[in-house]
Amino acid sequence: MAMASDGSPYRVIGQTVPDVRGPAKTTGQERYNIDVTFPGMLHGKTLRSPYPHARVLRIDPSEAERMPGVIAVVTAKDVAGTNRFGDYAADQPVLVAEGETAKMVGDPLALVAAESEALAEAALERIQVEYEVLPPIVDPEAAIQPGAPRVHEDRGSNICGDPVVLDRGDVERGFAESDVIVEGTYRTPRQEHAYMEPAAGVGVPEPGGGVTLYAGTQAPMQARTSVSRALGIPEHRVRVVPVPMGGAFGGKIDVSVHPHLALLALKSGRPVRMAWRSEESFQASPKRNPARIRVKLGARRDGTFVACEADVLLNGGAYASSSPPVLKVACCYLGGPYDIPNVRIRGVAAYTNDPIAGAFRGFGGPQAAFALETTVNKMATALGTDPIALRLKNALVQGRSTPISPMLHLDHPVTLPQVLTRIRELAGPKPEPSGPRKKVGRGVACTMPIFDTSSGAIYLLKGTGANIELLPDGTAVVRCESAEFGEGASTLLAQVVAEELGLEVKDVTCVLGDTSAVPKSGRAVASRQAFCLGNAAMLAAHNLRTKVFEAAADELEAPPEALGLAEGHVFVRERPDRRISLGKLSWACRLKGIELRGDGWFSQPHGKLGHTFSAGLMDLEVDEETGKVRPLRSVVVLDVGRALNPGALRGQLIGGEAQGLGFALLEDMPTEGGQILTPSLMEYLLPTASDVTDETIVSFVEEPYPAGPYGAKGASEHSVKDVAPALVAALHDALGVWIDEIPATPEKVWRALGAAGRTA
Amino acid sequence: MTGVEYIEARSVEEASRALTEQGEGAKLIAGGLALIILMNHRLLQPTCLISIRRLRELRYIRWDDAAGLRIGALTTHREIETSRVVRRRAPVLVEMEGQVGSIQVRNAGTIGGNLCHGDPREDPAPALLVLDAEVTLASAAGARSLPLRGFFVDFLSTALQPGELLTEVRVPPLPPGTGATYVKFSHRNALDFPVAGVGARVTLDADGVCQDARLALGAVGPTPLLCDEAAGLLRGERPSPGLLEEVARRARALAAPSSDVFGSEEYKRHLVGVLSRRALEQAWQVAGDGREATRGRGRQRSREGA
Ligand SMILES: Cc1cc2nc3c(=O)[nH]c(=O)nc-3n(C[C@H](O)[C@H](O)[C@H](O)COP(=O)(O)OP(=O)(O)OC[C@H]3O[C@@H](n4cnc5c(N)ncnc54)[C@H](O)[C@@H]3O)c2cc1C
Questions:
Q1: Is residue B16 a part of any domain in this protein?
Q2: B186 and B258, same domain (yes or no)
Q3: Is the same domain home to A592 and A649?
Q4: How much is the pLDDT for A8?
Q5: Contact B116, B136 (CB under 8 A)
Q6: Least reliable range by pLDDT among A394-398, A685-689, B143-147, B296-300
Q7: What DSSP string describes A180-245?
Q8: What is the distance between the alpha carbons of residues A731 and A620, in angstroms, rounded to a whole number?
Q9: Are residues A584 and A541 in the same domain?
Q10: Is B302 among the domain residues?
Q11: Is the CB of B19 under 6 A from ligand 1?
Q12: A554 and A634: one domain?
């Protein structure tokens, strides 16, 4: 095989390949969910509960039904199935029925399909609902106490999913042996995904009682199953076609418009479009779980960590969504990338009448990393040691079992020392303050991020399929579940297929997600796509290659073992001039009745989650009078195994860092009595381009991971996590105060200075 | 939002007449930025929109030795920000406009719409107030002139009478030795309304003694607030940390902010103090510089004024 000029054994892998959908996106030609239209289409709207907790006594849609131009009004009475969805507990209603309780602001009660959006909205106002308003349950600490009023009447308590209990060694003895103990209670915000495109799509009724849903999702097959079960429609009658989404970040795993579109399309007999407003999405889509985490860390005077105790409480909001696994992952992160002999971790997620929470890039990691890494930084201060040196001293090393999590084992390279050394090398000089009332500071953090390896360690993800077909024009089509939401799955797949079949990236077409056309590949979550889809596509390509060589053996009169693939041709390796184009071969096979299609199925049924190592450094300036922070420069180091597409990966990490900065500095969705206090993008402060660092240095450690495609590890979520603890440590470096509750708003910084007697 | 009538006015007089004829439910629309948000949130449901966008005669920036700087009501934020005349005659307005929203917002929003919206959280008012700006209000019956300080009546309420339009904003010529500045505090560096905004102006005599001063606060009360008493302390004085601190203290006391997700009342008061002191320090410095150098320096300043 020809070697690339940079010494890499690969031709396409490892190169920065522009997003294959980039030209369409940048020229406005990409069709997103809100762009989908069908002739004769109706417009659907949702009536939502204004109360966080209320019994729905009566829903009377008759007046709305009589309005001219209103074609269908749907309530729970029209739902034939379980009327429930949810992957970890089927506890979320498609529509709240009479007699049931609405459990959060925005819970759906009724749907309308009308000739225009305005008409549908007007019809919502004509639906009469009688409520019995109930006191909202909003304090997760109180909610989990025995005997507390319950959010779900049919559940024994407000504890959502199984509490987590992780133990190693003897923490009491560990703390007794510690010379220095550092403790803290940390709080992290409810973060909204705030993707540019809220949930939207079109539902189209099909002959025979079926329905096709043109609506984005990170989990097409799961959406099909959810809709089928909740609505009582046989699964084969539901087709989900995930249209490219304007962002997802974990917020589009659960179904959103999907069951509603199906209900309206089936009842009206016409295509129905729905597009949530961003305010609606703020209410109805799951957020990052607000967390309260207590951490206690004990160390010897020489810096050796002896004991760590942590206790997590997640506010899950009204429904389980992904809170149970988010909790597990958070607890797993609290073990840290450290070798600590005595560890005790406890975790609980609570149901409340607050907005629903669940999956969001990092999946419990950002909350846990903020708490643990801030504690480690405090320990460095207490011991008077350099925070990087302290981490190096305690870092996991090859050959040790994982800290505590049953989800992990260290069967692959442990690169934390390289990662930390790299960040130290890239740190550079600390910047100078720009003016008299400014202070600068620097902070670091590191984590051991995890990713799915198609191992079944995360629900529903066991096994990843892909298939590749060769077309008579010599190009290839690759099909798998997946979805496009800006993360670049299509580009990655095209790279793998091009690499393996000797094609150019432009010669590979990706068909993602259409449940009637693709093999099951699992959800587009958990930093798993490059790893899992990459492996599945590689296997499919190898199977296809075998068939291609067998078929070409006849044509080229050489044994299959003697053949190679390059530049769209099969050739005899010894005599490269003897070759046949893939297009010709494909035609020939058609005539001979040979199928040129390869299937790949990648699974590690007994495997565990994959893990890697990352570190972040943040330099900032803070105004010591107003408390406002300006992030200046950051360094992100991540062991990626191999950077399959360095440019795309860099984009992912910089994007993740921006989201981490939002989490650390600006973003919060507080509630009062279950009502959102930042109900729209006017109040919810998403960082703009002028609020992120002036410069971000991204550096990859590339220690090939044997199980990964070309050695790659999952990477796309990881840079979110180090930002908050690094930033809070930098604030401490600048001002000498610790902020234990993020976002570190100017007011919190000012108050911390006041509490420390440091304000004028 | 069904059934809103839309009238495109071809003159100030026509717009005024339409306003009177359509009565209560009629609203003027310029850039539409403030109005459409209110309508989307159903805080306002006008029955008739009277567009004044086509009134080219209200879109100008002129200098006139007697009247000073004259800005037509339909002039956009961006036009003011990038105007050489404004940069020369009232550079503080350039500094202020550069901090409004984002470039998109500045290209769409008009100065007239901004002032007439009557939202205390907007940037232009404090900067214009310290320059002793005046506005012209016109209707089919005629025009009147009003100092801007008399224009803001209450939250979202102005001195505009039924049938009246704001047609012009005027900034009288500034005496020599004058420095003015506007400092804004917001959480983000773009798109945000001020959590607090402070305009300051100092006029120095040849010896560097303060002859006159103004201080105005935005976003911390039902209307923009002029702190005459506080600023009055500066007259006849040279700057000293103690003096500026005292003025800032009085500004802090005058401010009447309310707690919200962007900050508590207490913190906003604190900001008023910090920003007032910084604004005065800077204005003093600009005034001092201005006495030496040529007039009309437009200095770009960052949001918290440093
Ligand atoms: C995302 C965003 C960010 C923003 N950020 C800022 C910011 O940082 N700082 C800031 O100051 N502002 C900000 N704004 C507000 C916006 O810049 C101002 O409100 C804008 O100048 C309004 O002008 P307009 O022409 O769009 O007004 P319109 O919305 O057209 O009108 C506003 C009101 O004034 C009335 N009106 C308009 N023109 C006249 C007239 N000539 N005579 C009488 N009445 C009139 C209208 O009837 C209406 O009641 C922001 C707005 C948005 C949407």
A1: yes
A2: yes
A3: no
A4: 80
A5: no
A6: B296-300
A7: EEEEEEEEE--B----SS-SEEEEEEETTTEEEEEE--S-HHHHHHHHHHHHT--GGGEEEE----
A8: 7
A9: yes
A10: no
A11: no
A12: no
Residues B95 and B149 in one domain: yes
User: At residue A760, does pLDDT exceed 60?
Assistant: no
pLDDT, chain A, mean: 94
pTM: 0.95
Tokens representing residue A18 in the block = 């522009």
Last residue of a domain, one of B171, B198, B215: B171
Residue A296 lies in a domain: no
Of A683, A688, A745, the CB nearest to B189: A688
pLDDT tens per residue across span A513-531:
999 999 999 899 989 999 9
Q: Is residue B22 exposed (0-12), middle (13-18) or buried (19+ Cβ within 10 Å)?
A: middle
Q: Nearest C-alpha of chain B: how many angstroms from A687?
A: 7
Ligand 1 centroid–CA B122 distance in Å is 9
Residue B176, number of CB atoms within 10 A of its CB:
13
From A568, A602, A636, the end of a domain falls on A602
User: DSSP 3-state assignment of A711?
Assistant: helix
Residue B296 has pLDDT above 60, yes or no: no
Give the closest residue (by CA) to ligand 1 atom 5. Answer: B101
The proportion of chain B whose per-residue pLDDT surpasses 70, expressed as a percent, equals 94
From B129, B148, B171, the end of a domain falls on B171
The bridge status of strand A629-639 relative to strand A614-623 is: antiparallel
Q: Is residue B304 part of a domain?
A: no
Q: Which ligand 1 atom lies nearest to the CA of residue B58?
A: 41
Q: Which of A268-282, A702-716, A738-752, B66-80 has the lowest mean pLDDT?
A: A702-716
A680: nearest CA in chain B? B41
* Ligand 1 midpoint to CA B270 (Å): 28
Structural domains of chain A, count: 2
Residue A626 DSSP class: T
**CATH number for the domain including B29?**
3.30.43.10
Same domain (yes/no): A701, A668:
yes
Quick check: B303 pLDDT over 60? Answer: no
Count Cβ–Cβ pairs < 8 Å, chain A vs chain B: 55
Q: Is B175 left (phi over 0), alpha (psi -120 to 50) or beta?
A: beta
At A193-248, the pLDDT tens digits run 999 999 999 999 999 999 999 999 999 999 999 999 999 999 999 999 999 999 99
Give tens-digit pLDDT for A432-487.
999 999 999 999 999 999 898 887 656 566 889 999 999 999 999 999 998 899 88
Q: What is the pLDDT of residue B291?
A: 67
Out of A437, A688, A690, closest to residue B306 by CB: A437
Assess whether B62 and B151 both reside in one domain: yes
- Mean pLDDT for the stretch of residues A13-39: 95
Distance CA A550, CA A588 (A): 13
Q: Is A118 inside a domain boundary?
A: no
| pLDDT tens digits, A617-668 | 999 999 999 999 999 999 999 999 999 999 999 999 999 999 999 999 999 9
Q: Is residue A543 part of a domain?
A: yes
- Calculate how far, in angstroms, residue A662's C-alpha sits from the geometric centre of ligand 1: 28
Tokens found for residue A538: 């590689």
Count of domains in chain B? 3
Which residue segment(s) compose the domain that A628 sits in?
408-451+609-760
**Helix, strand or coil, per DSSP, at residue A676:** strand
Report the CATH number that the domain containing residue A426 is assigned in CATH: 3.30.365.10
Tell me which of B105, B160, B183 to substitute to probe ligand 1's pocket, judged by most ligand atoms within 8 Å of the beta carbon: B105
Closest chain A residue to B264 measured between Cα atoms? A747
Residue B213, ligand 1, Cβ within 6 A: no
The CATH number given to whatever domain includes residue B159 is 3.30.465.10
Same domain, A594 and A625: no
**Structure-token pair, residue A44:** 């659907």
Does the residue B127 lie in any domain?
yes
Asked if residues B214 and B172 have their Cβ atoms less than 8 Å apart, the reply is: no
B165 CB within 6 A, ligand 1: yes
Task: Find the domain containing B82 and state its range.
Answer: 57-171
Q: How confident is the model at residue A163, as a pLDDT?
A: 97
Same domain flag for B204 and B261:
yes
